[in-house]
Amino acid sequence: MKYHVGFAIEEIIILSILLRKNNMTISRLKLIFLISICIGMVGCSFRRAPEPELKPVVKKKVSPPDSVKSTPSKSVQPKPNAMESRITRKVRSSLKLDPLPEGWTVDRHPVAKWGMSLPTVMSNVLDSAQSVEYWEEIIDIPTGYKLPLKRSKVFFQIITRLTIENVELHFMNIDHIYSSTNHEPSHYIMNAIVRTIELKPTGFPQLTSNDVVKYKFLMTYGTPKEFKKGFHHYQNDKTVLKVRELDKSHVQIQMNSLELDAKLLVAIDDMYSEEGIEYQKKLLLRAIDF
Fold it and tell me: Locations of Low complexity compositional bias (predicted)?
């Protein structure tokens, strides 16, 4: 700044000397013009440059794209309407499984239950009875004895619009094991059933044995316990049920009572085991008096 002021003063002195020498009008004009330039230069040197205005920097918030946005942890599931709920309850109720029958049933009514005596069964279905058969089954006992087990069976035939059903009700006389005097029909109790169902021609559609097994057993009693030798095996604490397809139009069902099978084993153990034989000897010895 001092340099500019000195330069302006020096110019003024030089011009004043020139004026003294030349009094011409043009020289005066030049002097005025030079003085104006010098004053302008001096004023510019004293003037400060304007400071730049500071503007706040605004950070733009960049939102991530839709593909990067995280999804909420819990998804909002639509609530099922009332119609769907009713349909679900209806389907679940229709899949309810039935318990295994405890004997022979006709139209879902028990006709001959496990342990029922032969005369009682005959009185229930006397009109359709075809025959009654008696025989002895020889059972080999581990102790070396042979047990003549008294058995019998009753044959029935039931004909309907769609089927011809042959029913065999099997009985056994457990009381006869304890005493040979127990030979009356009332001592025979039902322990097993064998049923054979023949499907009549129905035209279109024609029912098959596979339809019977599928809808009357697999979808009624559920998944079998096992499949062995062509039989679907079902079992609970009272009944063993086995069903198989003989051919396209014949189905066989075999059933037996677990309670009566256990009762037979108890009777055999009571009379033919080593302890049972010793007990029977003691009873006989009571009749001998010394």
Answer: 64-76
